[in-house]
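Bumping my old thread because nobody answered last time. Still need a sequence for this structure:
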């Protein structure tokens, strides 16, 4: 019997396909999905210290597996509170530095209640970083630099994403996330 895929990973994959790739929020994600170079790790931890231990393990894992391009650490149980999640992100960034991975990896953050500083909580722009579950995205900096070097106007990506999200509207994204959680 084949191993079943954890529900947190299924939800994350659906979100990647429908939102991140489907709307081209990340023009580089489709290649990694097609090439099967995304590693998904479910982190069931609810305590900051334990979650950071798993984060460190995933940094080591990514370092030892050059065939894997990126890792999504999906928090299946903890860090539902956005402020607690932001603490996790801050400590994860500090840990990157402490472990000697600064300049090698960077962290991108996604959360169901993501709100950009200075934005209204209901602004559709927040959906560029809203995911079904709290997620830390470990990115190889060298790979990102290589891709950005050949991409026309990479500095426009966030602005284009925000414009598209606002054009689609919050209800559009709420429906997608609601469907993902129903499955």
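Sorry it took so long. Here it is:
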């Amino acid at each position: 019997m084949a191993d079943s895929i954890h529900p947190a990973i299924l939800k994350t994959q659906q979100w990647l396909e429908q939102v991140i790739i489907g709307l081209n929020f990340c023009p580089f994600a489709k290649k990694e999905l097609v090439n099967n170079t995304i590693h998904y790790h479910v982190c069931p931890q609810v305590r900051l210290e334990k979650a950071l231990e798993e984060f460190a393990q995933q940094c080591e894992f990514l370092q030892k597996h050059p065939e894997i391009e990126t890792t999504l650490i999906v928090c299946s149980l903890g860090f539902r509170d956005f402020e607690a999640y932001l603490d996790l992100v801050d400590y994860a960034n500090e840990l990157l530095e402490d472990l000697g991975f600064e300049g090698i990896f960077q962290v991108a953050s996604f959360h169901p209640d993501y709100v950009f500083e200075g934005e209204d909580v209901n602004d559709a722009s927040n959906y560029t970083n809203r995911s079904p579950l709290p997620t830390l995205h470990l990115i190889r900096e060298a790979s990102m630099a290589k891709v950005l070097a050949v991409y026309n106007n990479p500095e426009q990506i966030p602005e284009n994403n925000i414009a598209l999200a606002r054009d689609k509207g919050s209800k559009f994204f709420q429906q997608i996330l609601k469907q993902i959680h129903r499955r």
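Residues 48-64 form the longest helix (17 residues). Let me know if any region looks off to you.
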